[in-house]
Amino acid sequence: DTLYSGSGDTCVREWDLETRRCRGSHLGHTQRVGSLEYLPNESVLASGSADDTVRLWRVGGGGGAEAYRTLEGHTDSVLSLACVNGKLLSGAIDETIIVWDPYQDWTPTHRLLGHKGHILSLVSLPGYAVSTSDTGTVIAWDAESWTISRTLQHPPSEAVSHMAFAPSPGVLLCTRDTTLQIYDAEWWSVVRTLPIGPAPGEG
């Protein structure tokens, strides 16, 4: 089994989970690599970087990761990636989310506008893509039309730094106001708020 990691030294590293040793470092980005996402249907690993690009790597087959393609379209650092409905989504400091379609030669088919801050996190839910920003806004996008389905403002307008989807009951948000909030994925209502200590949440 293999684990991939991004680093501040611009590398994507490949780790053997059994031996816990690094199999190799893959070069291509020119600045920090801050996000990774695997697209199983394509056997492709995507990496997002502060060099404003998304790089694609062919993985599997026993040959490690092979540089495949560079996607350009953002004007600032790419902070988040997600595989949603077979598409690759990238979110950046430039306040935009780009939808890349592997079935159309990785064409950027949609540019999602709605946030007024850095896109910090992206996650896939059944039928939706959900994004968070450093202004505390959470937006649910319809994964077919790519239009805004719902917008939540996380009080008190602090950054929603990380997010994960739990099938039962919903979305877990990690925020920098020292709390975890669990939202019902269907009704988008707060199920529970949990304190996480005096330091801001980071993941």
Radius of gyration using CA atoms only: 17 Å
Q: Largest beta sheet, briefly? A: 4 strands, antiparallel
CATH H level, superfamily name: YVTN repeat-like/Quinoprotein amine dehydrogenase
Q: What general form does the structure show?
A: globular
What is the tally of helical segments?
A: 0
- The CATH architecture is 7 Propeller
Encode the helix/strand succession as letters: EEEEEEEEEEEEEEEEEEE
Distance between the termini: 24 Å
CATH topology: Methylamine Dehydrogenase, Chain H
Q: For the record, what CATH class applies?
A: Mainly Beta
Number of strands: 19
The proportion of residues forming helix, as a percent range, comes to under 10%
Low-confidence stretches: none
InterPro entries: WD40/YVTN_repeat-like_dom_sf (IPR015943), WD40_PAC1 (IPR020472), WD40_repeat_dom_sf (IPR036322), WD40_rpt (IPR001680)
Pfam families: WD40
Organism: Hemiselmis andersenii (Cryptophyte alga)
Keywords: Repeat, WD repeat
Topology:
Elements: E1 2-6, E2 12-16, E3 21-26, E4 33-39, E5 44-49, E6 53-58, E7 66-72, E8 78-84, E9 87-92, E10 96-101, E11 107-113, E12 119-125, E13 128-133, E14 137-142, E15 148-153, E16 160-165, E17 170-175, E18 179-184, E19 190-195
Antiparallel strand pairs: 1-2, 2-3, 4-5, 5-6, 6-7, 8-9, 9-10, 10-11, 12-13, 13-14, 14-15, 16-17, 17-18, 18-19
Organism: Hemiselmis andersenii (Cryptophyte alga)
Pfam family, one: WD40
Protein name: Guanine nucleotide-binding protein subunit beta-like protein
